[in-house]
Amino acid sequence: MSHDTIIIARHGKPALSRKQRMVWREYRDWWVKYDAGTIVPDQKVPKKLKKWAKKADILISSPLPRAYDSLVLAAGKEPDHSWPELVEAALPSPHLGTLKFRPKTWGTWSRIVWFWGWPDGMESHGEARQRANLAADKLGEQAAGGKIVYVSAHGWINRMIKGSLKKRGWKCVAQNGDLHWSFRRFTRPTQDEMARD
Predict the structure, then answer these.
(1) Spans of all domains in the chain
(2) Average pLDDT over residues 182-191
(3) Which helix (H) or strand (E) holds 24?
(4) Residue 181 — left, alpha, or beta (φ > 0 → left; ψ -120 to 50 → alpha)?
(5) CB 106, CB 82: distance < 8 Å
(6) CA-closest candidate to residue 185, choices 13, 51, 45, 1
(7) Of 114, 104, 113, 78, which Cα lies nearest the Cα of 180?
(8) Residue 195 pLDDT more than 70?
């Protein structure tokens, strides 16, 4: 049976240090640097991802450097497309005065308040959901005809796109969590196969 395939990977380990404590405003500044920064050089790409990236018919990346450079490292070439729909969902740090936390803790708090409806002037959860739906539709179009599409993006938006793809009939046939270089692999029968059924 012929299938359309989408592999959505999270980027590699970022170069910007997380070993610092900061107040909420400093975390927002740190996140701007994080978005502008790349990954740790010369890191090892998991063999499975490297194999899929090299085998893919179409390579698509978030435009943020950590995702873009991860795709280049995995595939050995530039992506075919760079889509703004794939950038990470907003992380509005809650206003907690002079309390200081590490970026990982701020990220957790920020994701919770954002998920529960507090975007603080940034992209809302509902807006990110619409973006994930758009990305899922576009990825489906790219994969049509039995193609393999390899995507390099980010932790939370990847999760959201997973939900959007599943609602559109895609099956998640393999996944391995949310850490750096993690992936989700989706398939669906090609239109020709569905027509035969």
Answers:
(1) 3-196
(2) 95
(3) helix 24-36
(4) left
(5) no
(6) 51
(7) 104
(8) no
Token output for 73? 């490292």
Query: Residue 177 contacts by C-beta under 8 Å, 6 or more apart in sequence?
Result: none
Strand pairing partners for 60? 81, 151
- Measured distance CA(134)–CA(168) in Å, rounded: 12
Write the single-letter amino acid at 129.
Answer: R
In this predicted model, what pLDDT tens digit does every residue of 42-82 receive, in sequence order?
899 999 999 999 999 999 999 999 999 999 999 999 999 99
- Does the reported pTM lie above 0.90? yes
CATH assignment of 3-196?
A: 3.40.50.1240
- Return the exposure string of 6-30: e unless at least 16 CB atoms fall within 10 Å of the residue's CB, then b: bbbbbbbebebeeeeebbbeebbeb
Digit-coded pLDDT (tens) for 20-51? 999 999 999 999 999 999 999 989 999 999 99
